[in-house]
Design goal:
Chain lengths: ~375, ~160
């Protein structure tokens, strides 16, 4: 297995102009032993949609200077771009094709598309991906699961067509088993009760153990952001799409059983429990051959109790994910993707998290888990 | 995201045209981890000292071009607001703001999303109401700032 970093991890440092793109690449190349992979979000790291020829030359110069490799480029699609109509699948495909050409120009091997990208679009863009020898990977992001239609339809297409240029990009957030402590702390600063946080952790454990008072139904087919909007509407106005009605009603009852007179934000906190995917490590092992690259998602690296100098994310089973991928024969890149910085961004800059230190701790954990030493040789 | 830093703290200024104060302005950043096609940006919920300034009173300066109304921004479908770039929000308000401190309540609306949403068709007809959090998923709360009007002209 190989290691890299998604520069998404340094979004806050970039926002505050503390690290330039070159600084971020240098950090990966010079300060993270064994890591050499670079992943970017195109609309974060680049002058988009055309970064210009001078930039492209500088980009390759940085790769050479810092000993790094472009691995995966993450692309989006905003269906209201044209404002006078919703983009058709053909138009989404055209955007993806332009992004594929951009990725090729910058030397990437893979392009990650959003978990919401329709399979029809992936199939339509596949001939160009094959021609450019780029592999397309659909992100599997919590609360989506590895089980179910969204991954199944990709695996089925790959097996039917025999293509080597389509697969999945698992985001390790799908191996989260409770809301992150930094997310809950932010909610509490915004007025949520401690009882709501405790209820959210308790319900997460029940959902994981299969003892929760409801099934998730259509919950895991939604993105977390869309689900939060739907839940807020349900709590404030009542009503939601059919597949969410049962779990939402039961969730509301659960919240009211644990929190006295819950406020809107208390409901939001308890609902974080249903954002966990509860996907299976066994499925990860079976699907390892379909993995393009991975997002090593984490939200907070805290000290491992009784292991001085070691850190972990206490809400995500990274060890289980790495073991399953290794047993399944995965040899590609796991790219650190730090996302927890946003949970301190209601505070002043001085109180926000240090992205560089957080990523260094995560990389140290990954090296430990895949069995390489800091002086970089595989054991 | 970046709640307290979406408006640059020292950027609140009155705007003077030909010796007349026509409004005020401030420097803003995108409330997301990435840039977007400019057309997706539909304006701001903006309240200063309890007075709301609607979209029609706002214009937006980015990419080295003169300020544009959000009706004009709507047609900037191939122009991108890059993540790194600060923009200037201009607000029409004859006489401008008084010297001293002002309480600014603020929310940006950018109808970028993770793919298709149930609201897509509705938002083609009418973008979401400002200040409701719709179209502001990375910063769903209205953020309050206390800013001091700087008497200099250049932002």
């Amino acid at each position: 297995m190989k290691l890299g970093v998604s520069l998404y991890s340094y979004q806050q440092s970039q926002f505050f102009r503390e690290l330039t793109l070159e600084d971020q690449i240098r950090e990966v190349g010079e300060h993270l032993p064994y890591a050499d992979g670079i992943e970017i979000v195109d609309e974060m790291s680049l002058r988009y949609p055309d970064p210009g020829e001078d930039f492209v030359s500088r980009w390759f110069m940085w790769m050479e200077r810092y000993g790094t490799v472009p691995v995966t480029m993450d692309v989006s699609f905003d269906v209201l771009q044209f404002r006078d109509h919703v983009m058709s699948y053909d138009e989404v495909t055209e955007r993806l094709e332009r992004d594929l050409r951009l990725a090729k120009r910058l030397g990437f091997s893979n392009v990650r598309v959003l978990s919401t990208c329709p399979i029809e679009v992936l199939i339509a863009a596949l001939p160009l991906a094959e021609e450019l020898d780029l592999r397309l990977g659909k992100e599997v992001h919590q609360p989506m699961r590895l089980e179910g239609r969204q991954v199944g339809e990709i695996v089925e297409y790959v097996e039917r067509s025999g293509t080597h240029h389509l697969g999945i990009v698992p985001d390790f957030g799908i191996f989260g088993f409770r809301p992150s402590e930094v997310l809950l702390a932010q909610y509490e600063r915004r007025g949520a009760s401690r009882e709501a946080s405790a209820a959210s952790v308790e319900l997460s454990a029940m959902l994981q153990a299969g003892t929760a008072p409801f099934a998730l139904d259509d919950v895991s087919n939604q993105t977390a952001g869309n689900l939060r909007v739907a839940w807020k509407n349900f709590v404030s106005r009542g009503g939601c799409e059919a597949g969410l009605a049962k779990p939402f009603a039961a969730l509301k009852a659960f919240a009211e059983s644990r929190v006295i007179e819950p406020t809107e934000i208390d409901y939001v906190v308890v609902a974080e429990a249903i954002m966990q995917s509860n996907t299976s490590l066994e499925t990860m092992r079976e699907l390892a051959k379909h993995v393009i690259s991975c997002h090593g998602k984490f939200n907070n690296m805290s000290p491992v109790p009784n292991s001085p100098g070691e850190f972990h994310d206490l809400a995500i089973d990274t060890a289980g994910a790495i073991a399953a991928l290794r047993e399944g024969g995965f040899e590609g890149y796991v790219n650190t993707e730090y996302e927890g910085q946003r949970y301190s961004q209601d505070r002043t800059r001085a109180e926000m998290m240090d992205e560089v230190e957080q990523v260094r701790r995560h990389q140290a954990m990954l090296r430990r888990l895949i069995g390489v030493t800091a002086d970089a040789g595989a054991q | 995201m970046f709640d307290n830093y979406l408006i640059r703290a020292d950027s609140l200024r009155n705007e003077v045209v030909d010796g007349t104060v026509v409004g005020f302005k401030m420097a803003v950043r995108i409330a997301n981890y990435r840039g977007v096609f400019l057309s997706l940006h539909t304006g701001y919920f903006l309240e200063v000292d309890g007075v709301t300034y609607p979209r029609e009173a706002q214009s937006f300066e980015i990419n080295g071009k003169p300020p544009r109304t959000f009706e004009e921004i709507k047609s900037a479908v191939w122009e991108h607001w890059d993540f790194d770039d600060e923009a200037i929000l201009h607000v029409a308000c004859p006489g401008g703001l008084a010297p001293g401190e002002h309480t600014v309540r603020f929310q940006q609306c950018v109808i970028a999303a993770y793919g298709y949403l149930p609201t897509d068709k509705v938002w083609v007809e009418t973008p979401p109401e400002l200040g409701t959090g719709a179209g502001s998923d990375k910063t769903p709360n209205v953020v309050s700032y206390v800013l001091t009007l700087d008497e200099k002209q250049d932002v």
